[in-house]
Amino acid sequence: MKRIVAFGGLVATAGLLASGLAAPAQAAGDVASDALATNGMAAWNTVGYWFAEHRANLINATPYNVETKVVAKHVSKGGPAADSKPGVVPAIGDEKKTVAKSKNVNLPKTTGKVFFRAADGKPHWCTATSVQSAYKNLVATAGHCVYDTESNAATMNNWVFVPGYYQGKTPWGIYVGKQAFTHYDYDVYEDGDRDYAFVTVYNGLNMPHDGIKKFSDVPGAWQEVSKETYDNFPKWFKGWNYEEFRYCHEGKRYYVWKFQDAGALGANVGGQGLAYNQKVGKPVFVFGYPSGQHPDGNQAFSGQTLKWTYGKTFAVQAPAIKGEELVGTKSSFTGEGSLGSAWLVNYNNGRRLGYLNGVTIGVSDTDGNNRYDTSFSPYFDGELYGVYSAAKNLWSGSIATPFESPALPRATESPRPS
Fold first, then answer.
1. pLDDT of residue 62 exceeding 80
2. Residue-wise DSSP of 308-371
3. Which pLDDT value is given to residue 251?
4. How far apart are CA 348 and CA 109, in angstroms?
């Protein structure tokens, strides 16, 4: 379902990926956008869903497995084609650096897990990665790890990103999604060629390493608020004593746990660049959290730690998901958990930076030996750049403060950084 769009203007470029540098103009009507948590109350409800009852939902979430196992075929003719000249967006911190070589494969801090409550009402996760943006607040993943293709709802509920996730730990905090962007053809038609999404996130929240402590142990970690503010907190603050979660009530004094603002996502972990309209056949590193079994029952990955594969891209078709112009790469990743995995071209191991040029939307056993051998992604073209452009300059802000005042907790309206 590829549509023709007009092109014009220029884009900043770096490295050897770009030539000509004609950037595609954003086509009106090609971008779909939906709200995730647009205010402080919604954001705090999201935080509560994952941290209530000793982070039960975060710990017990399972890998998302919708549309992961797809019959795909390698095609030698046709396949994806650029719709304008190649272009790139440099990674955060990499705007003026030259490429250096390294023999080690150092895992990027930018990749992590996205957690959400899906149509089945249960907590699940996919893989995602931080990408360059004006305010260092943008995440890229597969479209069906954001948009709900299983029910009539627009997006997944309680959507958060945890960069650098490792065996249940959140080393750089948790980032609540604010607004999601995808292509119109995916939002309306679930077109596999457009199965990607960009999500703006609020500043992160840090959790104490040893969990939330009772008031008598760490009184400075609790913030006293008015009864009105206390009473107006979302329902998930109610019904537990303060030793179990975020609030307490001692006599006529009211307290809530003070989360620490972790700052902007990209300031903490960096952000990958973006490459589009590249030639098929480039080598890519794929970083993700594969889980689940191969068709033969072999449990190759746990999903608890970040893994990688490496290979060249080739043209792929997957008619079952309307995927006519996809790219594939040889990969042993199983489908569960690897959805949204980052495909990075020109990845530099020393700086752990490259250019995002794909996101895994499914896996396939192409040789019939009951082992997954191919991961595939939408081809990143000018229309993808248009979706990215709609999201990359939007400000999110913080949800850590303020607590006080008659209003509910809300996102701060602090000045945008210059």
1. yes
2. EEEEEEEEEEEGGGTEEEEEEEE----STTTTT-EEEEEEETTTTEEEEEEE--EEE-SSSSSS
3. 60
4. 13
Q: Are strands 123-131 and 62-63 parallel, antiparallel or unpaired?
A: parallel
Three-class DSSP category at 277: coil
Cβ-based neighbours of 175, under 8 Å, separated by 6 or more: 139, 160, 161, 162, 163, 201, 202, 203, 204, 205, 265
Say what the pTM is.
0.81
User: Cα separations (Å) of 122 from 49, 53, 323, 412?
Assistant: 11, 15, 28, 30
Burial class (CB in 10 A: 0-12, 13-18, 19+), 347: buried
Residue 123 has pLDDT above 90, yes or no: yes
Contact 52, 123 (CB under 8 A): no
Neighbours of 406 (CB within 10 A): 8
The phi-psi region of residue 77 (left if phi > 0; otherwise alpha if psi is between -120 and 50; otherwise beta) is beta
Give the three-state DSSP class for 44: helix
Measured in Å, how far apart are the chain's first and last C-alpha atoms? 40
**Closest CA relative to residue 308, chosen from 399, 369, 375:** 375
Residue 273 · residue 17 · CB < 8 Å: no
Q: Taking a C-beta distance cutoff of 8 angstroms, is the pair 257, 226 a contact?
A: no
Q: Would the pLDDT of 108 be above 50?
A: yes
Q: How far is CA 16 from CA 20, 91, 202, 356, in A?
A: 11, 14, 33, 15
For residue 141, count CB atoms less than 10 angstroms from its CB and return exposed for 0-12, middle for 13-18, buried for 19 or more.
buried
Structural tokens at position 34: 């939906």
Beta bridge partners of 377: 327
Element (H, E) at 49: helix 40-60
